[in-house]
Structure prediction request, 834 residues.
Amino acid sequence: MQKNALYAQSGGVTSVINASACGVIQTARAHPDRIGRVFAADNGILGVLNEDLIDLDQESPETIAALKHTPGGAFRSCRFDLGDFESHRHQYERLIEVFEAHDIGYFFYNGGGGSMLTARKVAWLSEKMGHPIVCMGIPKTIDNDLPLTDTSPGFGSAAKYIATSVREVSFDLSSMATTSTKVFVLEVMGRHAGWLAAAAGLAFEGEDPPLLLLLAEVPHDSARFLNALRDKVHRHGWCIVVAAEGLRCVDGQFCGVEQASPIFGHEQLGGLAPKLAHQIREGLGYKTHWAVSDYFQRSARHLASAVDVEQAYAVGRAGVELALAGKNAMMPVIRRLSSRPYFWEIDAVNLTEVADVEMPVPPSFIREDGYGITEVAREYMAPLIEGESYPPFVHGLPDYARIRGVKVPKKLSAWGG
Amino acid sequence: MQKNALYAQSGGVTSVINASACGVIQTARAHPDRIGRVFAADNGILGVLNEDLIDLDQESPETIAALKHTPGGAFRSCRFDLGDFESHRHQYERLIEVFEAHDIGYFFYNGGGGSMLTARKVAWLSEKMGHPIVCMGIPKTIDNDLPLTDTSPGFGSAAKYIATSVREVSFDLSSMATTSTKVFVLEVMGRHAGWLAAAAGLAFEGEDPPLLLLLAEVPHDSARFLNALRDKVHRHGWCIVVAAEGLRCVDGQFCGVEQASPIFGHEQLGGLAPKLAHQIREGLGYKTHWAVSDYFQRSARHLASAVDVEQAYAVGRAGVELALAGKNAMMPVIRRLSSRPYFWEIDAVNLTEVADVEMPVPPSFIREDGYGITEVAREYMAPLIEGESYPPFVHGLPDYARIRGVKVPKKLSAWGG
Prediction:
């Protein structure tokens, strides 16, 4: 029996989430006997509720192929989750309306842990309401905090960007340190897990690199940190500090959030990096520069990891293959077979096992002093940044795909929310 | 007559200053009849004063060739300038001592406008003190503010990095804007000139891009800016703001410098980007992300402009060729012959014409509203970011050169300063 398929993107995007889209769409198109038309929701699950569907038949095969090297979310992503089944039954009834109106039998939701909870909820349509829908989660997150998978597509490329950038800065800083800047502070993403800060550890080899990592998993003690930094600068002449935005001080509070001002009564400006730089200047007197990568680390497709791109595509393809094999409410995962060389295969887990579960950097990955990574961590992360996957450049700039985004004519009345 | 040559790096480094080093060293080595040994000073002019000389005969041809793709300053750079001739005559006498001790007849100083002033002063040794030394300036600066040259080596690569990163972020931001972040603020370098902020204009085509540039050349009026931003977000749904760190408010003060705190009596934390993001949140209520590129924009050799690398090498080579042709106290410059296609040749100017002269973005390059670039600016900048020049990668990370750095045995007593 032929049914239509619907794909949607959710949560913070990555430089390779469109490679997963490409995997889903190309694989779905390869099975015209089972899958009829292929749609994408505009703005994730919100697009489904609003019946904002993009007709992918209007996109050329070349555009779909070019998604593999295009950052951002081509079909737009949302920060919106479905409510509880009991209290938000109208949302679920609306989903059924939309799925029925457009004969959608397959739903693929591409996101992180929170989005997998929403995918899990969509699967309730068949379990609790008897509406036949095959729902698959497709993993993505630069935070690498999804459980039961070797890695989350998006992490490898962000890790490669951070490790490369830190290595490059080390060549700059080491040439300036004698008469100028001695410390460089970089703030990276990671509210609850320090995977991206840990990735900076790949920039250096050897036992005692001029690098201090401040992971979200290790409570931050300012005095101990300044001592460690002074020690590094004494030995190397300079040092790089990479801090996870979710760093917590020993009192359990986020270090990067400023106290409310006694004068203005609102939050002060600034994030973690300028705050650390300030402490370093005040405490040690070193000239300090700081940078905040923010969206760059998750959109720098020009520096994507080839392994990451391949895995992102593979989980998209596997989602469709699992659906066609009669599975439901699952998420494809990556299973590591060996580290050197890196061999992996695709496996699958139930959405219930991954929905809203966060996996921090394990203690065995964190050096005893808390400021670095262990060999175990290096062996784990190194394969994930392997290989370059450059996008095409035209006139000096990357040539990324833009979809036409032709909407499917609406058949229902507007959703009241 | 055969003399030895000395090369040194000065001021903030770039991702291609070592390509100029490569040009100087390879060209000097190609003329053994005229140039004997080739040395590099460790830490710029300070290394000369301290007689800290690196013996480049100890570096392999492969290492010298690899400098062409290695960021930072391989021989270390300094923020130190020579004093006035009259009041600091001991510095000049020391230079002669060192040059004589090591039979140095050629001196190549690689830096920006301030460093060209120091190069100019070294040339006084022959003019005012009768000591025969051929002194050449080799241009570099990401700020692009050197006069009389089409561009400064280092700018094209930094511009390519910024334009590429802004284009990539535009794909991220546009996918999130409906339910999350609507504005992204990027702070780029440029204390006195807004060339790097202007380069972000290359990221978009068309008349009305979702982009506002805050150039150092245009006094910043907060209210007018917030109005322009609201207008952009209304029309596009989102907007990117790129600000030069040297942005000045209408009162003439740097916008990025916080007022002294009435409580703590010292400078507040934070730079321009968090301050602008704060104003946007407070003034317009948009969720705003911000990033600061800092050293990344000048060390991102992985994204260098091929044109820039070629020009950086060419000015290094030309410096040696000019010296061998009997010229003195000059700096090679790039002369544009045509924009489409970009044809250029090497010319030379006297150091007096470029020393300590800063060239801002000209008014004809700035859009009437002050928040964008004109077609004239685009035609000027576009050729400078053309072509990719990827470094080799090993195990997922760029493989950059490190010199052995064997020091030349000292012949003089330590310099007292």
Summary: Residues 3-141+301-357+387-398 of chain B form a domain with the Rossmann fold fold (CATH 3.40.50.450). The radius of gyration of chain B is 23 Å. Confidence is low (pLDDT under 50) at residues 259-269 of chain B. Chain B touches chain A through 78 residues (CB under 8 Å).
